[in-house]
């Protein structure tokens, strides 16, 4: 699904940004005149959005209603035109243009050097052992410069090609390929995938199988994963009639690493939309920690940069309240001047080794780093 132009842009800030967005979208959808004979996921009135991770972030959270949407689902394609009442909708279909050459650059550590990051992880471990939190996710950033007029679609094409099991996204300057679905809602049914705990892929078939088996039996990673799953289930219960999750996680294979994963299935309460669930879920233990409030306070204390929309929700919602939202991971922000800032984090628990956590962030930078090579 590709949106072009803007019919409407809604901006939100502060601790109520997600609940405010859910309420604003409910009002807009109820007032809209929608002609949707296709009636597929992503047809009709649709907004695309990206939200800041932290309540105090300087990055604006936005819902954008495009002027034109081109979509495809299960072999059916469509064009949607959206305009304000009294305005003339675009009559011409957008014309295809060849994708330009992919910009090349090398990521370099930004706010934290490698030594500084391992020192921060050490402080996080001390805080955990002192009883302040059970788990906290510590991130670092890296930057590169690309030509301001570079064709960013080339980066998206590379991400989509290399990571077909992820959701490739680009909304308001934030782009990436996320392996983690925050929530997907269609016709009153919802699903989510929780990822927490990871390890590098092996260099041979035997090494790869051993890496997956070690992850599946790692007490440290299983504890981290359990924190994340319980966080999601507790957040969802007020908004659903029923919720189920598998008892044990499975190992999810991505091109550069293995993840522990759990799928959650839900039946929604009638009044809940995809954005209501997003508001309830964010931030999950997988990107913040546990307990949430204490972990967020520790992140603000230890990370010397604003995460912006990294690890925040990104996705779309339609006039029925259905939609798909992922967590903005394996991603980068690209400013108008061509400054690219990528992000990667690691879940820290009591027995975390700072050097191992540094290696984990290097693995998580790889999708953006490889797209720039």
Write a structural description:
The chain has helices at 17-31, 114-129, 153-162, 205-216, 219-236, 274-281, 292-302, 354-372; strands at 2-4, 8-12, 46-50, 61-65, 68-73, 76-81, 108-109, 135-145, 167-171, 174-178, 181-186, 189-200, 240-245, 250-253, 257-268, 289-290, 313-318, 323-327, 331-334, 339-348. The chain has 373 residues and is α+β, with helices and mostly antiparallel strands. It has one domain: Anthranilate synthase (4-Layer Sandwich), CATH 3.60.120. Strands 2, 3, 4, 11, 12, 13, 14, 15, 17 and 18 form a ten-stranded antiparallel beta sheet that branches. The mean pLDDT is 91.
List the helices and strands and how they pair.
Blueprint (H helix, E strand, L loop, with lengths): L1 E3 L3 E5 L4 H15 L14 E5 L10 E5 L2 E6 L2 E6 L26 E2 L4 H16 L5 E11 L7 H10 L4 E5 L2 E5 L2 E6 L2 E12 L4 H12 L2 H18 L3 E6 L4 E4 L3 E12 L5 H8 L7 E2 L1 H11 L10 E6 L4 E5 L3 E4 L4 E10 L5 H19 L1
Antiparallel strand pairs: 1-5, 2-4, 3-4, 3-17, 5-6, 7-8, 8-16, 8-20, 9-10, 10-19, 11-12, 11-18, 12-15, 13-15, 14-15, 17-18, 19-20
Helix pairs in contact: 1-6, 2-8, 3-8
Helical proportion?
25-40%
> Biggest β-sheet, characterized?
10 strands, antiparallel
Give the CATH architecture: 4-Layer Sandwich
In sequence order, what are the helices and strands, one letter per element? Answer: EEHEEEEEHEHEEEEHHEEEHEHEEEEH
What's the number of extended β-strand segments? 20
| Overall mean confidence score, pLDDT | 91
Structural class: alpha+beta
CATH superfamily: Anthranilate synthase
Number of helices: 8
> Oligomerization state of this entry?
single chain
CATH class: Alpha Beta
Spatial separation of the terminal alpha carbons: 26 Å
Shape: globular
